[in-house]
Write a structure and sequence with these properties.
It is built from no helices and eleven strands. It has 119 residues and is mostly beta strands. A hairpin with a 6-residue loop joins β4 and β5.
């Protein structure tokens, strides 16, 4: 089994920063990509940022220039550094890991961490 666990959410004022962490652990696997999604109240889930392989990254337009995704391959951990936070960034943030286990590819999700940005 695989566990994907996020941490680092919280309450911050607009303009502030937070760093989210997500670690995948468990059975032996290969990480194809790790990503951060978010779901704001009343809205659909959206992809925020993704790191493919070791260093190919992509971001939602709404966070470009403010958020940075990075990966520590040795720790099977991905980070999301969020700067210049806005109230519209308020959401539950979910980590997703695209893994290959014994030749089978599958997605594994964390339970989410709340980020609240006050104006």
């Amino acid at each position: 089994q695989v566990q994907v666990v996020e941490s680092g959410g919280g309450l911050v004022q607009a303009g502030g920063s937070l760093r989210l962490s997500c670690r995948a652990s468990g059975t032996v696997f290969k990480i194809n990509s790790m990503s951060w999604y978010r779901r704001a109240p009343g809205k659909q889930r959206e992809l925020v940022a993704i790191v493919i392989g070791d260093d190919t990254t992509n971001y939602a337009d709404s966070v470009k220039g403010r958020f940075t995704i990075s990966r520590d391959a040795a720790k099977n951990t991905v980070y999301l550094q969020m700067n210049s936070l806005k109230p519209e960034d308020t959401a539950v943030y979910y980590c997703a890991a695209d893994l290959t286990i014994d030749l089978w590819r599958s997605d594994w999700w964390g339970r989410g961490t709340q980020v609240t940005v006050s104006s």
